[in-house]
């Protein structure tokens, strides 16, 4: 059972002052819960350790996929395979941040990996800043959270510089260390997340710029803003798989830019391997005894309740919960129905006294960095609520 602490919510005007404008869902309900999940210090430590161990498993699984040419099995677009290999070969293509989605972890329930949002994870603003603000506004001890997300990402940006020091790339081209940040115009949440990352990079000592994705310029010699200023790094809050399918010419150009060592793209192309839910099957094959993994397969499982997912589905879209006898108990429609499918053994989410279900989102930036929660129904979709936490 999830135990909750009731708090006084932040008003919409207060949220907007923080740059948080997506505070109200389409049904006019509040997106931010007026409760906090109570977790113990030991439970926080368990989330931290799980994230670290599972990330190591993902790294080993990625090496296995590349060595055995299993890109098709994961649904990886063919026009990104070379970019994935290139980014994997050299540590200068650094993974800045990501988010694990876990079942369990509270009230004695075993932590189980549901999926890994490795490329363009959401809930960063909420987890890193907003839940801290909820404690502060309710006169609670601001240190009583597992929430080092901002500082962890800041330190990860700093690692970009040290990665170059012993390579031939460390030359006068990188004097100034400029990073261009980009998101799609018209999406408040994505832009606020991207600008938050820009601020973190600025705090880490980088020169930064922002440009909407549609105004960024590319050629084989590099990446530029609309004023033709060149940047050594480009962070895009835009999924690699969408670049491959919707912008194939850009996918080719980015591969060329990487091969020419003209710029480095963040998060790297290899995070698409991690992003694919097909990796759940690879992980289970390689680490069948891990307590964190659920049985997963590219074919329907026999004799167990299971969840069918699309390998690149997002926000609960195109998920089906299937009973032992094959009956579909619940299904969510969406735009990913033609994607390759993965079948994962079903696991119960923690519930509160009202029956609402909770999923933990643990951010990873070199190490486990912080947790926030999503509350909703059996399938957590874009109408689920964000719930902060407090250590008890």
From TrEMBL:
GO molecular function: ATP binding; ligase activity; metal ion binding
Database matches in Gene3D superfamilies: 3.30.1490.330
Keywords assigned by UniProt, alphabetized: ATP-binding, Ligase, Magnesium, Metal-binding, Nucleotide-binding
Segments passing through the bilayer: none
The Glutathionylspermidine synthase pre-ATP-grasp-like domain, residue ranges: 13-390
InterPro entries: GSPS_pre-ATP-grasp-like_dom (IPR005494), PreATP-grasp_dom_sf (IPR016185)
Name assigned to this protein: Glutathionylspermidine synthase
Protein source organism: Sulfurimonas denitrificans (strain ATCC 33889 / DSM 1251) (Thiomicrospira denitrificans (strain ATCC 33889 / DSM 1251))
């Amino acid at each position: 059972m999830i135990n909750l602490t009731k708090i006084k919510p932040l008003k919409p005007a207060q949220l907007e002052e923080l740059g948080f404008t997506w505070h109200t869902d389409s049904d006019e309900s509040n997106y931010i819960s007026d409760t906090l999940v109570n977790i113990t210090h030991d439970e926080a430590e368990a989330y931290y350790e799980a994230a670290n161990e599972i990330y190591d498993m993902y790294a080993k699984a990625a090496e296995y996929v590349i060595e055995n040419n299993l890109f098709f099995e994961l649904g990886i677009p063919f026009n990104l395979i070379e970019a994935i290999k290139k980014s994997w070969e050299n540590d200068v293509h650094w993974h800045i941040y990501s988010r694990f989605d876990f079942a369990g972890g509270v009230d004695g329930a075993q932590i189980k990996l549901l999926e890994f949002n490795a490329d363009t994870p959401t809930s960063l603003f909420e987890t890193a800043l907003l839940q801290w603000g909820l404690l502060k506004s309710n006169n609670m001890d601001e240190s009583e959270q597992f929430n080092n997300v901002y500082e962890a990402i800041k330190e990860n940006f700093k690692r970009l510089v040290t990665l170059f020091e012993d390579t031939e790339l460390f030359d006068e081209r990188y004097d100034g260390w400029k990073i261009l940040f980009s998101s799609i115009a018209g999406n408040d949440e994505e832009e606020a997340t991207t600008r938050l990352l820009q601020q973190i990079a600025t705090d880490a000592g980088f020169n930064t710029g922002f440009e909407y994705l549609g105004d960024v310029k590319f050629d084989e010699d590099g990446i530029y803003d609309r004023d033709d200023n060149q940047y050594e790094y480009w962070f895009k809050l835009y999924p690699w798989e969408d670049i491959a399918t919707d912008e194939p010419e850009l996918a080719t150009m980015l591969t060329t830019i990487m091969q020419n060592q003209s710029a480095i793209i963040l998060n790297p192309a290899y995070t698409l391997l991690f992003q694919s839910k097909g990796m759940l099957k690879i992980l289970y094959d390689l680490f069948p005894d891990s307590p964190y993994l659920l049985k997963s397969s590219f074919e329907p499982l026999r004799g167990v309740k299971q969840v069918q997912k699309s390998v690149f589905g997002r926000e609960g879209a195109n998920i089906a919960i299937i009973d032992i006898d094959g009956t579909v108990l619940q299904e969510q429609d969406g735009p990913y129905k033609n994607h390759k499918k993965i079948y994962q053994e079903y696991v119960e989410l923690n519930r509160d006294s009202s029956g609402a279900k909770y999923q933990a989102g643990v951010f990873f930036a070199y190490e486990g960095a912080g947790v926030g929660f999503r509350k909703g129904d059996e399938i957590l979709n874009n109408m689920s609520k964000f719930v902060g936490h407090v250590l008890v």
